[in-house]
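1st attempt posting a full record on here, be nice pls
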Amino acid sequence: MLETPGEPPATRDTPASRAKGGLLVVGSFVVLLFALELVNTALLHGLNRVFGLRPRSADGIFDIFTFPLLHANLNHVLSNALPLIIFGFLVFMSGLRVFLTAMACSWLGSGVAVWLIGNRGITVGASGLVFGLFAFLLVRGFFNRSWWQILLSVVLFMAYGSILFGLIPSVAGFVSWQAHLGGAVGGVVAAVVLRARNSARRG
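the predicted structure (as tokens):
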């Protein structure tokens, strides 16, 4: 296709452009988490009492959409930031649609699990997203029958597989294993949904 004078060249979806986009999107999300934590700290973490997720409460249903954005303290944000950047970036390398699907399923899965089976009290934190993205990366290669994705999942499991202990109630301690479990289930659901979409397109 010829380019007419004065028109910008067509945007190409290359690994380099996806990497740049992934760093921008995931990095911006993590920066948002830190910014919210600074505001929350200034307010003595009052945002947690308003927008944290309260299990089995009617108004708590709306908190499903806000609780991953808040944290208990700065160390809580720091513990989620690095895996969010790594896993989020790797998912984004498959495209924005894949990233948004994995995030949405992980977000909703984590929130619904906490709302249904969470302990009393208020739950905050993005660890459910971490588990969701991680689970997605672990299983998608098997659904897609992609050897390189399976190889990546093996490498990730060897490097970060220990975080899966966070799914066990007796090991998780004061951490919300319900959020971890729901997020992981959401990540698997995202892999299934995306596989079904790809199969429908081929059909």
